[in-house]
Each structure stands twice: as structure tokens, then as C-alpha cells.
């Protein structure tokens, strides 16, 4: 059992900051996009969908999280273009068990200082837009093919250009009762934590912004998916529950600028090269779905290819080996979730004497504790405390800043090495397809901010800052 102690929580003061919520919400309602729920392609997705569609309204023997979608789906809906389109897909007989799903969401973010997904500290930004379309087909009883195209606009790191999010060949090798085993090949979602594989779809994540200490948005392309071969399995453990596992070899996506800046240094001239890496996860879940326990591990290998002699950073290698522990308990009206990560960074000895990368070897630490409460099938709220330390042996960042100044004459803000985020939020399931969200963050530190959106040319970042966000999402 992992016990997390947040000793500094009481030292924070929540302050009121005036924000144009009304104007932003009106604009979202007028311009919010068509969105669709991504079809689950693995066991995690299937569990989420079954939990949302199969239960009646709040019986004492069932979890309310499992009842929300079912009760809402029985509500009478007025015919419109979207509903007619969705009903056509549901009733049309498509060949080979073909299914088509999609999603889209539009967010508005404003901050007191610092930029998040655009120029958010100067009047707010509609810079967070997500849309995806996925298809799946089962040509044979044991074979499933699925793929998704994703467009994501989120600051300078994601321009909105559509890209292949995943493309999977899933073959079931063995299946009997509650036991099944198989193999997946292609561009696969990376199995770590509770939320990574479904983080694309707003309806399946607990908030607009996931806990950034675990699910970094600035290295999202690296964390989300990669070209991989994975074995998976699920087996029953007596009457206690089920244990599912995934493990495979993985070639990560490291070619985007946000990832390179985050892992190497601001403004590298060269590029990261992907190398064979490894990833795996195991999750135990009780039969009543109340308790979930998980452990995930990654062994990421990559190397830096400099751009000739003009590049101040020399060739070098990086090993990133985090391990994640996850736990969740679901009661009738509330849930509590916590995840902890110990992140080991090891840089090779060939980077030269640039940016302290030469022989750098340190451990980062991350964790969050989150509580959710379901007032009704349509309304729910959450509160979360999220903590990130880039280097657990220098949690304040002062030693790193002093070393950078002494050795390289560079002024680095100590608060860029940590972040502590208190978040509260509200969710309204207007219909089973359409959802509205709002949340507030009080943040101490800038450890997870994108360096592309907050360059030194724009001035220093602020250590204490506020973030407001609202989002409209639609799915079919």
C-alpha cells in the first residue's frame, strides 16, 4: 500500500480571480464542436463502455458511475441532424461488424500568468481543440482491425494537423470463460496508468486537464502511442476478481519539438532518434468493480543526433525508466483515485558539457490524490491535489538553478523544477453524447508548462498562478 502525505496542502490559499466565464461559455455553446466517443480497442476501453452502458439508475447494489450513461440514454431526445446521423450509424447494417465512432471538443482557457495552449494570460484562448474519427472491423471471429485519425490543436506543440493516432491488428490466441490471451501489432496506445489509453476522449477522463505530474501534455505524443508489438491477457483469480496484463516492445514517437525541448534543452538544433524500448502494465480489479490496483513500467531508449558542428549539444543517449503505481476505490456515489510515479532519468556521457546533460542521473517524483462525487447521474464534481518534482533530491530546484548559473551563466527559475496544483471541477452530462465541464487550478510552480508556449523571450514565468478552463464535448 502506498501512502501519500501532502504536508503543504494547508499552506495554500484559494483566491478569487475574476474571469469572463459567461462570455466564454456562451461562445463555447455557439461554436462547440461535434464530438464522438472513441471506440475502445482494448480491454480498458471495453470496461469503460460496459460500465457506462449496462447499469440501471443508482440501485444500491451497483456503482453510480456505471449507471450514469444508462439512465441518461433513456431520456427522450428531439430529432436533429446529429441524432439522425448517429441513429443511421446504429441501425445501418455495416459489413464485417464495421463500427464508426468519433469525438470532438472545444475548450477555453484563461490564466492569471503564464501560457497554456495559446496566449491564455492575455484575454484567454480557445487553443484547445480535439477531434478524432475511428473505425473498427472484425473480419474473423478472433481478428479485429481498428484505427483512429486524430486532430489536436494545443499551443505551439500541436498544430491541429491530422495524424494517425493508432492502427491495430488484434488477434485473440486463446479464449475460454474469463480467460483470454492475444497479440496486438501496429501503432498501439501505451499501457500505463489508468487514463493514458483513453485520454483522447473528453468523456473518459476525469477532468479537462489530466493530472500533469503523471500524464504530461507537453510530451503527450511520446506518452500516448508508439509502434509496438504487445502480448495481452486476462485471467480470473478465483472469486476475487480478474488480473489483466500487457507487455511489449515499443518504438516511441520522439520526433516532435515539444518532446525534444522537454527531454534535451530549449532550442535543440538536432533531433531525437527512437530506439527499441519496452513497456508493460498489470491491473487487478475486483468482480464488483469497486477496487482497482495497477502497476506500470517503461524502459525508454532514445538518442540525440546533433545537426553538425554548429549544434552546441553533442550526440548522446537517454534512458527514461519510470514506474507507476495506481489505486482506485469506487463507492456508490464517490470515487477516490491516486497514482504515484518514480521517474529515473539517465543521460549518457557523450552529450559534452552542455546544459548539465553529461552523465546526468537523477530520479523525478510525481503523485496525485483525487476525489470524485456524483450528485446525480448528470452532475458530478471532483477535487485533486497534484505534485511534480523534476528531481526528488532537489525538490525546491534551488541547487539546479545555482549550478546552471555557476557553470553556464544561465539564470533558471527554481520554480521551473516543480509544480503543485490544487484543482476543483464540475461536470454536467447534458445528454449521453453532449457534456460541459468547468475547472479551476491554483498552481505553485511551472514544472509541467510547455517550454514552447513559454519562451525566455516572452519574459519570466510566474511561480504562483491561476488557471480557469471550460470545455464542451460531443461524441457518437
Describe the structure.
The chain has helices spanning 21-31, 43-53, 64-73, 81-91, 220-224, 257-263, 398-408, and strands at 99-111, 125-140, 143-154, 163-176, 179-189, 225-237, 241-252, 271-274, 277-286, 291-305, 316-330, 334-347, 361-374, 379-389, 418-429, 434-445, 464-475. Helix 2 (43-53) crosses helix 3 (64-73). The model is unreliable at 1-77 (pLDDT under 50). It has a 16-stranded antiparallel β-barrel. The chain has seven helices and 17 strands. It is globular, with a radius of gyration of 22 Å. It has one domain: Porin, CATH 2.40.160.10. Strand 13 and strand 14 form a beta hairpin. 41% of the residues are buried. It starts with 20 loop residues before the first helix and ends with a strand. It is mostly beta strands and 476 residues long.
Amino acid at each position: 500500500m502506498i501512502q501519500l502525505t501532502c504536508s503543504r496542502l494547508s499552506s495554500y490559499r484559494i483566491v478569487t480571480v475574476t474571469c469572463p466565464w459567461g462570455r466564454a461559455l456562451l461562445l463555447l455553446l455557439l461554436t462547440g464542436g461535434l464530438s464522438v466517443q472513441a471506440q475502445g480497442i482494448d480491454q480498458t476501453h471495453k470496461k469503460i463502455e460496459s460500465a457506462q452502458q449496462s447499469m440501471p439508475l443508482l440501485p444500491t447494489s451497483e456503482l453510480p458511475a456505471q449507471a450514469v450513461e444508462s439512465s441518461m440514454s433513456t431520456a427522450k431526445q428531439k430529432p436533429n441532424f446529429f441524432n439522425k446521423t448517429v441513429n443511421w450509424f446504429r441501425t445501418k447494417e455495416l459489413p464485417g461488424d464495421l463500427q464508426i465512432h468519433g469525438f470532438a471538443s472545444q475548450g477555453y482557457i484563461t490564466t492569471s500568468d503564464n501560457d497554456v495552449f495559446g496566449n491564455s494570460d492575455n484575454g484567454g484562448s480557445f487553443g484547445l481543440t480535439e477531434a478524432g474519427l475511428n473505425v473498427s472491423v472484425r473480419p474473423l471471429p478472433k481478428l479485429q482491425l481498428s484505427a483512429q485519425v486524430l486532430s489536436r490543436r494545443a499551443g505551439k506543440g500541436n498544430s491541429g494537423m491530422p495524424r494517425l493516432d493508432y492502427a491495430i491488428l488484434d488477434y485473440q490466441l486463446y479464449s475460454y470463460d474469463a480467460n483470454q490471451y492475444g497479440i496486438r501489432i501496429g501503432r498501439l496506445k501505451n499501457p500505463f496508468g489508468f487514463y493514458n489509453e483513453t485520454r483522447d476522449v473528453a468523456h473518459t477522463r476525469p477532468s479537462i486537464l489530466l493530472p500533469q505530474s503523471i500524464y504530461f501534455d507537453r510530451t503527450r505524443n511520446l506518452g500516448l502511442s508508439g509502434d509496438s508489438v504487445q502480448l495481452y491477457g486476462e485471467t480470473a483469480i478465483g472469486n476475487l476478481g480478474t488480473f489483466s496484463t500487457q507487455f511489449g516492445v515499443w518504438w516511441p514517437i520522439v520526433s516532435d519539438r515539444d518532446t525534444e525541448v522537454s527531454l534535451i534543452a530549449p532550442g535543440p538544433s538536432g533531433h531525437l532518434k527512437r530506439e527499441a524500448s519496452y513497456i508493460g502494465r498489470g491491473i487487478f480489479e475486483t468482480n464488483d468493480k469497486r477496487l482497482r490496483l495497477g502497476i506500470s513500467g517503461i524502459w525508454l531508449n532514445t538518442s540525440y543526433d546533433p545537426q553538425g558542428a554548429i549544434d552546441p549539444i553533442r550526440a548522446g543517449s537517454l534512458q527514461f525508466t519510470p514506474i507507476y503505481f495506481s489505486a482506485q476505490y469506487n463507492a456508490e456515489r464517490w470515487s477516490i483515485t491516486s497514482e504515484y510515479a518514480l521517474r529515473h532519468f539517465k543521460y549518457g556521457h557523450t552529450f559534452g558539457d552542455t546544459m548539465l546533460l553529461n552523465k546526468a542521473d537523477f530520479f523525478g517524483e510525481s503523485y496525485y490524490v483525487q476525489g470524485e462525487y456524483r450528485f446525480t447521474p448528470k452532475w458530478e464534481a471532483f477535487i485533486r491535489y497534484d505534485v511534480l518534482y523534476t528531481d526528488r533530491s532537489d525538490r525546491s530546484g534551488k541547487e539546479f538553478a545555482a549550478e546552471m548559473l555557476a557553470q553556464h551563466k544561465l539564470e533558471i527559475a527554481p520554480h521551473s523544477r516543480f509544480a503543485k496544483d490544487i484543482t476543483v471541477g464540475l461536470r454536467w452530462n447534458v445528454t449521453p453524447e453532449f457534456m460541459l465541464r468547468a475547472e479551476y487550478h491554483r498552481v505553485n510552480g511551472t514544472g509541467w508548462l510547455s517550454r514552447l508556449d513559454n519562451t525566455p523571450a516572452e519574459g519570466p514565468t510566474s511561480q504562483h498562478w491561476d488557471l480557469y478552463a471550460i470545455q464542451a464535448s460531443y461524441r457518437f
